[in-house]
Amino acid sequence: MALTFRIIVTVAVLGLALACTNDTDCTLSGECVDGQCHCRLPWTGDDCGVLKFGPSVEPAAYGYDPNVTSWGGNIIEYNGIYHLYVTQIAHGGLKSWGRSSEVVHATSTSLDKPFVKKDVAVPILAHNPEVVLGRNSTNGTVFVIFHIFPGSKTADTTLNASDNTAHVSYSTEGPWQPFTLNMQCDNPAPMQHPNGTWYVVCNTRNFVLYRADAFSGPYVEVAEFPGRPPLTGVWEDPFLYLDTVGNWHVIAHSWDHTIKTNCNASNVSGHFFSADGMNWESTRTPPYGHEVTFTDGSTKIFSTVERPKMYLNATGFPTHMTFGVDPHAECGQYCSSCKTTEGFDDTYTLLRPLSIDS
Question: For residues 107 and 84, what is the distance between their CA atoms, to the nearest angstrom?
Answer without folding.
Answer: 6
